[in-house]
Amino acid sequence: MASLRKESDIAPVIRRIVCPALLWVIPLAAQSPGAAPRVSVGGLFVTRYLYQLTDTANHLNAFDITRAYINVTGTLPGGLRTRVTMDLFTNTDSSRSYRIKFAYAAYTPGKTPVTFKLGIIQTPWLDWEEALWEYRMQGPMAMDRATYLSSSDFGAGLDGMWEREKVNAEIALVNGEGYNKGVGDQRKDVMGRASLRLRETSDSTRVGGLRVSVYGQYGKPTGGGERERSLVMVSYKSKRLTAAAEAAITRDTVTAPVSRPANGHVYSAFAVYHIPRSKAAIIGRVDVTHAQAGNTADRQTRAILGLSYQVHPNWRLLADWDCVGYQATPTPAQEATRSQALFQTMFTF
Fold this sequence. Notes:
The protein has 349 residues and is mainly beta. Helices cover 13% and strands 54% of the residues. It has a single domain (35-348), classed as Beta Barrel (Porin). The chain has four helices and 16 strands.
């Protein structure tokens, strides 16, 4: 009996020691290097109907899929994340192929505000600007359309935010040729963006508020030469209104032969107004591209005006008019495609 009493006296002590220990051991085991990641799969695709308004000879019109992405993301213990994105694109013969647009690992140590990335990563500017504009479904941003910037590239970078997104910044070292042109040679580009929120608004996202954002890039293209980009943007974003204006200077040289003008200017302004008590919004944008500053014949001005409707959180409709004006007399091919009516839908899942 004495031994039984001794065992019953010891049992509560064991429970008090072992049970709290298990509460520590089980989470630590779950965070071991072999722990399974949380994986999610999603996607995006944009359908389009296009009618060429100035193509009086052929009245060209067509249905198409202009964008399609499949995203696979993984979240692992210890602040590690991964992403792989497959991108649908159109070949010269109008057939479709897939390529990798993003494939990177991201690491955020502890509670620090900085994240490190390695792989095929987002470049600092276009991801930021597209989040502000919200209508990448309509077409590329001005610097992207003019082939001065690429939305992703092979390299390493870090980004961070401070004081609840009051300051948001990103810097990257990349090959410089974009995700769709291969790795290039030994030459690299360094690029960086910083954004400062001057005033808060009803939009608390990373691009919300009254902001001043700057972007800079310097590098050497494949084969030699120099590549420079400088950009400044003032933006305002609330739940009701988005408005932004930007100006950029570009400089491109190659060793020989010279294949493109050395100095260019790009200007862009856009706005989105969400109609009160409705799911509709009015969008407008003007892009001015001057490939060679001082040239009196190469300026192009693009105007976009449209109406969107959010049918479902994952389904958006957009009807818009897209027109390009040429400083010089347009060629027959330019004239046929310079003005078009578009009806587009974007699905996310």
